Amino acid sequence: MHDQLKDKTIFITGSGGVLGSTYVRRMLAAGARVVASDLKGHRADALVESHGENPNFRFYDLDVGQEDEVVAIFQRIMADGWEPNVVLNNAAITGELLMGAGKAFPDFANTSVEDWEKTLRTNMTGAFMIARQMDRDIVGRYPATLINVASMYALNGPHHQIYKDMPFKSFSAYSATKAGIHGLTLWLAGYWAKRNATVNTIAPGAVFNGHSDEFQRRVGELIMAGRMAAPDEIADAMLFLCSAQSGYMTGQLVNVDGGFSGW
Ligand SMILES: NC(=O)c1ccc[n+]([C@@H]2O[C@H](COP(=O)([O-])OP(=O)(O)OC[C@H]3O[C@@H](n4cnc5c(N)ncnc54)[C@H](O)[C@@H]3O)[C@@H](O)[C@H]2O)c1
To answer: 94 alpha carbon to ligand 1 midpoint, in Å?
Structure first.
């Protein structure tokens, strides 16, 4: 639908990743104005290269873990003439990102407090600071919605055996933050209800991003649909949550996981 989001100005964090960049492409195609942000660096550069010429696209460098940057972000965007009515807490540090490519992945017993806290800082505290700033600068001034991003590993535990001999593992702090973010959604839903703001959580399933055939087979057996998701299949649900069609939903967790959580 090319005009599904025509009245929406969407602010998205961590937008240079596999899902974020898909959301940006689909949101622009659905008629939204998109205010993208990410850490400074190659992911952001690729996004700006793809959409920089589009008058409905803007990009800001933003580290969601830096309080001074988050506190200033909406005022900066608004001063530039963009008033976001949809905010998407998408940025996250995954296990792979935390460790860096090629580094050995620690098991639970060897997980450092430093790595645990780094993950909490981005995934939870970052999301909290964005929501708090939205409360200060947007909520109550005009109707708005916040979408928090969880995971199929928020309210369901991983089957650890599927990661045996894989170069990546499921990371404990990741699951803890993804469960926690839905707590933030539930808390805010009632808190904002009388001020014309809604908040929901999306919980994407396993998204294909070049995984080996063996990993796809192992995870596929745990999913009713029998396979990993394409990024566009997660974007379909995300666009609905951003649109006016989800206006009567608040405080909900939407699983888009091919049935992983439904067995
Ligand atoms: N891909 C999946 O299978 C999957 C499944 C469930 C949930 N998710 C969630 O969906 C969201 C997007 O995931 P993705 O697959 O695109 O991941 P990704 O790793 O490809 O992208 C994450 C993005 O967040 C950015 N980021 C990291 N730290 C940041 C910080 N401090 N400030 C700002 N940006 C920061 C990264 O630069 C990156 O562009 C995440 O919240 C992730 O947890 C993904």
So the answer is: 7
